[in-house]
Amino acid sequence: MSSFAIVRVIIAAILLVGGASLASPARAADAPVGAARTLLESLLGRPAGSEAEADEERPIDPDRPHFPEAATAVGKGRFVLESGYTFSEKGSATSQSFPEALLRVGLFADWFELRIGQSVLDEEGTGPGARGSAFGATDLYLGVKVALVEQRGLLPAIALIPQMTIPTGSRALTADRVLPGLNVDCAWEVVGGLFSVELLVATNQVADDIHRSHVEVATGLTGVLHVTRALEAFLEWDAAYPAGSDRPSSGPRHSAVGGLVYFVSKDVAVDVRVGAGLSARAPDLLVGAGFAVRY
Questions:
Q1: Is the entire prediction scored with pTM above 0.70?
Q2: Which of 7, 194, 212, 279 is placed for a possible disulfide with 254 were both Cys, Cβ 3.0 to 4.6 Å?
């Protein structure tokens, strides 16, 4: 069986689980309650007065659809499935990605999670950065998240995500090599229950349209307004800065993205987003939708 066929089987299995979970998400019977939620808490213990807060289960904190990922892990014995669809357009070139599946599994402690991601990309058109027509599985994504600290005053909640892609994708889309990277995610609750800010600083090895790799530094700054207990609106500025690439399509890319996240329950969230390019190399238009489910 080819690597593409194996990946398709994985995607189908993930989507089947996700569909079932939308109907009946449930809390794991043995999920730990009151355990340390960050690496710092596991080493130094919880600050005084935080026990009651730690014992109460929080609503799902999905990575999507914001560019910065959540600064929290899913919790030991829990897992979260995230999936979605994105359409982007740059001149006459278009791109569609689906199912954008990300499985987050809590292992060992509440502050540690394993991450496995897979998607399919459909590209059409020509122009800077476009490959012509290409369709197939992207390279498999693997990573871990370590929730380092929760917010304490001006100190944000911080999580680290060491990650990589491995060359399992279709011939037209694979990078043909392992591409490592590191994301640093921060989050501040500015006005409790009303407004928060998220920040991403990512340094990753990425492949260009002719399968050469280079380092890219990406940043995301997101403002989140909690309209109601179940609905949040967000607006963010995303940027990417390629380093060491001489390709015409490798200039800085800046985009503005806004959207809504609706929490159906403590364990289910759905989202929509739309974005526009702010620089010559960014997509002219981006639209997407998706969901996240916690077991």
A1: yes
A2: 279
Residue with tokens 């100190």: 155
- pLDDT digits (tens), the chain, 295 positions: 444 444 444 444 444 444 444 444 444 434 444 578 899 888 887 765 555 455 567 899 999 999 999 999 999 999 999 999 999 999 889 999 999 999 999 999 999 999 999 999 999 876 555 556 889 999 999 999 999 999 999 999 999 999 999 999 998 889 999 999 999 999 999 998 899 999 999 999 998 766 678 899 999 999 999 999 999 999 999 999 998 766 656 789 999 999 999 999 999 999 999 999 999 989 999 999 999 999 9
1: number of Cβ within 10 Å: 7
Closest CA to 130 of 239, 284, 3: 284
Domains and CATH numbers, the chain: 3-294 (2.40.160.40)
Q: How many CB atoms lie within 10 A of CB 217?
A: 14
| Residues present in the chain in total | 295
C-alpha span between 81 and 103 (Å, rounded): 5
Report yes or no: 83 and 293 within 8 Å, Cβ to Cβ. Answer: no
Cis (ω within 30 of 0) for the bond into 65?
yes
CA distance 100 to 13: 14
Residues 102 and 39 sit within 8 Å (Cβ to Cβ): no
